């Protein structure tokens, strides 16, 4: 429980990935899905405990939806897609690695105070029908402030630094491999796209405002003398008595679009620094957990080896030396 009496982020939504099952025999059509067991204290869910089965492409759907719905958040990465040339995606080792990666992904999403509120996450965890069915129903860069430029530099260099560290520290390679991908670059790209959209909306509003001004000036100056002949006929065809109201509608639409674009850009900009802090805390926790698991595995291995040596020593101590054996190996005197 938190200080205000509310469930902690981890206790509020616990998701476990287990029981992988292979379906089909065809090389191209066969797939593996996993059991997702959910225990939650969040009232919006229909039950406190339930489960569904999901395959990898369902996780891809969820992550894409989260990236679209939360452009200012660092959405955790999924385990890498298998390579037909390097991976046997139905081997026990590959399935185990993928299951661990999917578990880490969901733990991070459930621990994020904004992402776990997603209606798409609820659909992913609750919907009994396939997500494919659910889914069917459903630039100019300006200089950034110094803090954002530092974030850009960090995002550009992070994967390289982590990979280099992993190659030097073989014992911690697995733990480093889990945290080397940084998807903050996606948030920065979303911010740039939002800024570009804001600039386009501002230009559209400016154009609509100028059009309204020209129309108002023409109205105040009075109608020009009607022209005769073909030009007069053309003027009649071009005349639109509703032009004034249409211009006003375009101005209002452009203004609303500008406000929405401005709000989106400001929301992403505000959340970036929070997401960077979150990333550092999460990475430290994941790295610490990975090192701890590695140390425990090494201790267990060493303890097993020690037990084997102790058993061997006990056997050796029971062996009796055959009398005269040692003498038979003594060199003869000449």
UniProtKB/TrEMBL annotation:
<dbReference type="GO" id="GO:0005768">
    <property type="term" value="C:endosome"/>
</dbReference>
<feature type="domain" description="PX">
    <location>
        <begin position="12"/>
        <end position="132"/>
    </location>
</feature>
<dbReference type="InterPro" id="IPR036871">
    <property type="entry name" value="PX_dom_sf"/>
</dbReference>
<protein>
    <recommendedName>
        <fullName>PX domain-containing protein</fullName>
    </recommendedName>
</protein>
<dbReference type="GO" id="GO:0035091">
    <property type="term" value="F:phosphatidylinositol binding"/>
</dbReference>
<dbReference type="Pfam" id="PF00787">
    <property type="entry name" value="PX"/>
</dbReference>
<feature type="region of interest" description="Disordered">
    <location>
        <begin position="209"/>
        <end position="231"/>
    </location>
</feature>
<dbReference type="InterPro" id="IPR027267">
    <property type="entry name" value="AH/BAR_dom_sf"/>
</dbReference>
<dbReference type="InterPro" id="IPR001683">
    <property type="entry name" value="PX_dom"/>
</dbReference>
<feature type="compositionally biased region" description="Basic and acidic residues">
    <location>
        <begin position="209"/>
        <end position="220"/>
    </location>
</feature>
């Amino acid at each position: 429980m938190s200080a205000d009496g509310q469930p902690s982020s981890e206790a509020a939504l616990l998701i476990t990935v287990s029981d992988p099952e292979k379906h089909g025999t065809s090389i191209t059509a066969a797939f593996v899905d996993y059991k997702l067991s959910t225990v939650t204290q969040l009232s919006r869910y229909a039950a406190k405990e339930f489960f569904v089965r999901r395959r990898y492409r369902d996780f891809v759907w969820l992550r894409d939806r989260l990236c679209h719905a939360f452009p200012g958040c660092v959405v955790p990465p999924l385990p890498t897609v298998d390579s037909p040339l390097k991976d046997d995606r139905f081997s026990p080792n590959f399935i185990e690695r993928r299951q661990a990666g999917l578990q880490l992904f969901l733990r991070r999403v459930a621990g994020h105070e904004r992402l776990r509120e997603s209606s798409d996450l609820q659909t992913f965890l609750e919907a009994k029908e396939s997500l494919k069915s659910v889914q069917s129903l459903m630039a100019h860069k300006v200089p950034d402030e110094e803090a954002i430029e530092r974030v850009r530099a960090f995002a550009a260099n992070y994967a390289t630094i982590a990979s280099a560290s992993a190659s030097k520290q073989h014992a911690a390679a697995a733990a480093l491999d889990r945290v080397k991908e940084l998807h903050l670059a996606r948030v920065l790209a979303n911010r740039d796209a939002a800024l570009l959209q804001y600039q386009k909306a501002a230009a559209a509003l400016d154009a609509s405002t100028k059009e309204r001004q020209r129309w108002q000036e023409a109205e105040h100056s009075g109608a020009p003398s009607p022209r005769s002949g073909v030009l007069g006929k053309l003027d009649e065809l071009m005349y639109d008595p509703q032009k004034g109201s249409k211009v006003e509608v375009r101005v209002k639409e452009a203004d609303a679009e500008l406000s929405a674009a401005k709000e989106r850009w400001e929301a992403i900009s505000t959340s970036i620094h929070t997401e960077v802090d979150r990333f550092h805390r999460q990475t430290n926790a994941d790295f610490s957990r990975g090192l701890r698991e590695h140390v425990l595995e090494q201790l267990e291995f060493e303890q097993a080896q020690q037990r084997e040596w102790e058993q061997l020593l006990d056997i050796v101590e029971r062996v009796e030396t055959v009398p005269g054996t040692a003498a038979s190996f003594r060199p003869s005197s000449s």
